[in-house]
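# step 3/5: fold
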Amino acid sequence: MAVVVRIDMELAKHKMSVGDFAERVGITPANVAVLKNGRAKAIRFSTLDAICRVLECQPGDILEWVEDRNDGCS
């Protein structure tokens, strides 16, 4: 299984740059890139709260579960 972070779509809706978003959320642009590129292994609820507050969205608007075809399950 994989959880995909869909921040790009929300940033585009709000016409917000990665730098502005990172500053408003309180994380580095490098950590935004980690989230966007699917390399994050975890996210703090406080960070998720800040992301949702800044983007005026629900967690389900930016997080999506996608079945991993290589997980060994049929």
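# step 4/5: annotate
The CA atoms of residues 25 and 50 lie 5 Å apart.
# step 5/5: archive (pending)
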